[in-house]
Amino acid sequence: MKLRIVYDNEAKEGLESDWGFACLLEAEKSILFDTGASAEILSRNMHQLGLKKEDIEIIALSHEHWDHIGGLDAVLHQNVTVYVPRSFTRRTKKSIGEKAAEVVEVSGPADIVPGVHTTGELRAGAGIKEQSLVLDTKEGVGEGVVVLTGCAHPGLENILEAAKRFGELYGVIGGFHGFDNLKSLEKLKMVIPCHCTVHKEEIRRRYSEKAVWCGAGVVIEI
Ligand SMILES: [Zn+2]
Ligand SMILES: [Zn+2]
Asked: pLDDT tens digits, residue range 160-179?
């Protein structure tokens, strides 16, 4: 499947960068993972990329932080199904429900469409609960699964561990936050640090052969 970065702290020329994260998965259905912080910026980037909100069939939100759900107004419509961690506030779930076809509350691991799974909501200590997506790689790309994270607040290592139930780990993409056990990524074949990853430069240097640059406009084959 194709993964297109739509919103990120960095961007290709012609697109806007901003603190936040969103990407579009072209799987059996068209799935938007997170929405960035601003509906205006999300709209403009989508327009630049030739994407229309009506084409999005599913929205999956990683966690209830403004830089991941702030752009919702640009993409909600009456036919879209929205997957949210069950721990989202009732108020947020209600306001999404008013503008979407359905709100699906995620607690444990589950399949969203064939080839796209959720870890279910995970949490480290008293931190915020967050879901990550787990994507089956297609033949020709590699064998295994690629993990897609929002901010990785539950801890990247915990998320990767939880994702193993869906297959052998092939790669990881997204915001890694303060993750610093770089050595633990050695076995992966694809490492793409985006958004809030504190040690982005260090990861790219250390794993230059498998860490491509991330920014709005980047397309990754999975
Ligand atoms: Zn966050
Ligand atoms: Zn974030």
From this structure: 999 999 999 999 999 999 99
Q: How far is the CA of 8 from the centre of ligand 2 (A)?
A: 10
Alpha-carbon distances, residue 181 vs 132, 188, 204 (angstroms): 19, 13, 14
- Which residue from 55, 54, 47 is spatially nearest to 30, judged by alpha carbons? 55
Under DSSP, the state recorded for 115 is T
Fold of 2-221: Metallo-beta-lactamase; Chain A (3.60.15)
> Could you tell me which residues come within 8 angstroms of residue 213 by beta carbon, excluding any fewer than 6 positions away?
10, 204
Ligand nearest to the CA of 150: 2
CA 105 vs CA 60, 85, 87: distances in Å? 10, 6, 8
Q: What's 61's DSSP letter? A: -
Report which secondary-structure segment, H or E, holds 172: strand 169-175
- Could you read off the pLDDT of 26-69 as tens digits, one per residue? 999 999 999 999 999 999 999 999 999 999 999 999 999 999 99
Kindly tell me the burial class for residue 88, based on how many C-beta atoms sit within 10 Å of its own C-beta (0-12, 13-18, 19 or more): buried
> Burial level of 31, CB count in 10 A (0-12/13-18/19+)?
buried
Ligand 2 centroid to Cα of residue 207, in Å, is 23
- Please give the distance, rounded to the nearest whole angstrom, from the Cα atom of residue 153 to the centre of ligand 1: 7
Q: What is the arithmetic mean of pLDDT over 149-157?
A: 97
132 CA distance to ligand 2 centroid (A)?
13
Q: Which residues pair with 30 in a beta bridge?
A: 26
